[in-house]
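We treat protein structure as text, and this decision shapes the records that our systems exchange. Below, we set out a record of this kind in full and without editing:

***
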Amino acid sequence: MNKFLLATLALSVFPVLGGVPNRAVANPSYTIAQTTSAPQISSFSVESVDDLSPGRELVFSLEGTPKSKVTMSIGTVASNIPMREVRSGYYEARYTIRSQDRITDQTAIQANLQQGNRGATARLQEPLIARENTQDSTNRALSIEQFTAKTVDNFEPGTELVFMLDGTPKANATYSIDGVTYDQPMREVSEGRYEGRYVIRRQDAFPSSGVQVTASLEKGERTVRARLDRDLVASNSSSSSSTELPLEIVSPNNNSEINGTVEVVGKSAPNSTVTINVTAQNNLVGVVGVNRNVFSKTVQADGQGNFSFSFKPSNILPGTRYEISLNATKGTQTNEETLVLVQR
């Protein structure tokens, strides 16, 4: 009886044990199918440019995991700039430098690729400016071509003094008014064109005549200086009128409403140089006087003194006020005019 039971148990147990090895073998294809690789960025590059002046377009390219959300940031200037997938795994973004942007070759630029809850980041390692142009810029002689100012009637408190300097681009420019203020920064409003403004305070002690104003231009370890090329206070003598340069805005009329591209036509002395700066002012709810520089250019009048230029407003908010400052120079002669236009 015991032998019969043992034989029966052996027959029932051995098939089960024989099947165990087959069931314990893992299916390798199943395991591989469940494994997904982390998103990655293969490359992040930029098309180098000659300079980083306003209006210059920067083109960025990125290669990485397809069908991802990709954005990039340019220092503190701009963030969350979308990069579009132009073909599988290849993304592109374009950014046009604005006049208020402060972008240099050392600005940190970073890309972020996101897929689901996983992502990858990459920092731009390439220079924005072509190396040969960077070398040329370094070797270029540091110089100030002109340091001038808009004349005023007097030195009363509240009067604004406007200084302009033409010189080597991408340098640090400052001005000093002897006995009043020193090392005031000047902003580069266009390539090689710097501007500084000072509002006279009640406590400022300006001399009645002969104010000494000096500009400094610094780049690296080099510095050059220049004296203001004129008196700040306009002369009341009749001889001053003979040196005033003609400057007239032919069209459009002052305080005209505009819509779309604006063309300004003017007239000055033959072959004179006219510098244009356009600022926009928005009056938003809760915000008063949001000023932006939207256009800067220097043109030369033809042999008959005619000149023209055009600009397209980037902000089409109705009621936006555009102030166009024109400064004409020829030799020691100068004149200025202001045109105000309103967005329809």
Summary: Residues 5-21, 23-35, 237-242 have pLDDT under 50 and may be disordered.
